[in-house]
Automatic annotation (TrEMBL):
Species the sequence originates in: Thermobacillus xylanilyticus
MOSC domain segment(s): 26-175
Name this protein carries in UniProt: MOSC domain-containing protein
Protein's gene: txxe 774
Record PROSITE patterns: MOSC
Pfam family, one: MOSC
Domain of life: Bacteria
Amino acid sequence: MMHDLASRVGVVVSVSRGATHTFSKPVVESITLLAGLGVEGDAHMGTTVKHRSRVAQNPNQPNLRQVHLIHAELFDEVCEDGFHVEPGQLGENITPRGIDLLRLPTGTRLHIGEQEVVEITGLRNPCAQIDDFRKGLLSRVLVRDENGSLIRKAGVMSIVLNGGEVRAGDRIRVELPPPPFRPLERV
């Protein structure tokens, strides 16, 4: 099962960056990833946490949320429920297609383009701002499975291991961490 995930090659559909702490991020032609920091010019760039709720808890904790990725397939899924969502509108920096981000284990590395590498640290925890953006959308990205466990569908968070420029059309290759695999948890 994991081998299938590792053999997949995806593509970047869109990239976004926002200099201020707004919910959505404008789509741009390219973003520059900076190793250990995140997306150049993005409000969430830095070695320590930048998400306001996390800063309030402890401003010195490491920033495990430098780059946010949401799979384009999620937009297709919520569109079937009547929600029109475009890349960047849910605050992600990179919108890939063709990779099942939510099934990847913690520590998976995504090789983007020629040299850029991000490492997945965990799941984005969908918040009430999603309903402020589109009423009812939160219930589509935060659901319960048949056992009653929460499934968070609003993408994954990552850190930058190797920087460079990322743009739409760049290919993405998956590199799984060594076993045993740890499932993604919210960060």
